[in-house]
Amino acid sequence: MACDYLIIVTPLLTPADWPRLARLICTKFWWDTVDMLIKPVGALVARYPALRSAILAWSLADNFWLRRAAIEHQLLRKQATDEGLLAQIIENNLAVYEFFVQKAIGWALRDYAKTKPAWVIDFLRAHQAEMSALAIREASKHLADWCQASNELEN
Q1: What is the pLDDT of residues 20-48, one digit of tens each?
Q2: How many Å apart are CA 37 and CA 41, to the nearest integer?
Q3: What are the b/e assignments for 73-104, b being 16+ CB within 10 Å?
């Protein structure tokens, strides 16, 4: 209920609410809760560019749920996705072999592939050697035609 409420009041949130969102992610963690909290987190980062450094800090946090939130915070942003930020956050997490982090990497790339498949393909090609099979598999789900034509992403 609290997550649903936060989504409703997202337009009222300010950077002052950032520490409370972090506390919720760290204390009420599980994928379903974290995945709901990315909506207000993402909206705040989009509305307040100064929070870009805060989301980058989350992408390097000891808490992997904060890392997951950082990776996923731009889901459904489509053309408004900050590609540089997305790439940097994912690159910060390529060597983190936590299931929920790797799944988030794949999910974030798969979501963005619906908008800019060429960008995702280029990212996958550039980072294939560093990526887990799970992240590649998840990222390439909507890139089936490309994957069939090129076995580059098969492990």
Answers
A1: 999 999 987 777 788 889 999 999 999 99
A2: 6
A3: bbbebeeebbeebbbbbbebbbebeeebbbbb
Measured distance CA(30)–CA(147) in Å, rounded: 32
CA atoms 31, 136, 82, 116: torsion sign: negative
Number of neighbouring beta carbons within 10 Å of residue 113: 21
Tokens of 144: 């089936």
* The token pair that represents 122 in the structure block: 């280029």
Strand, helix or coil for residue 88: helix
- The set of residues, in sequence order, having a beta carbon less than 8 Å from that of 70 and lying 6+ positions away, is 55, 56, 58, 59, 61, 89
Q: Which residues, at least 6 apart from 137, have a Cβ–Cβ distance to it below 8 Å?
A: 106
Instruction: Compute how many other C-beta atoms are within 10 angstroms of the C-beta atom of residue 31.
Output: 14
Whether 102 contacts 68, CB under 8 Å: no
* Total-model pTM: 0.89
Q: How far apart are CA 8 and CA 109, in angstroms?
A: 26
Tell me the CB-side half-sphere exposure of residue 7, using CA atoms within 13 A: 11
Instruction: Return the closest-CA partner of residue 55 out of 39, 64, 42, 65.
Output: 42
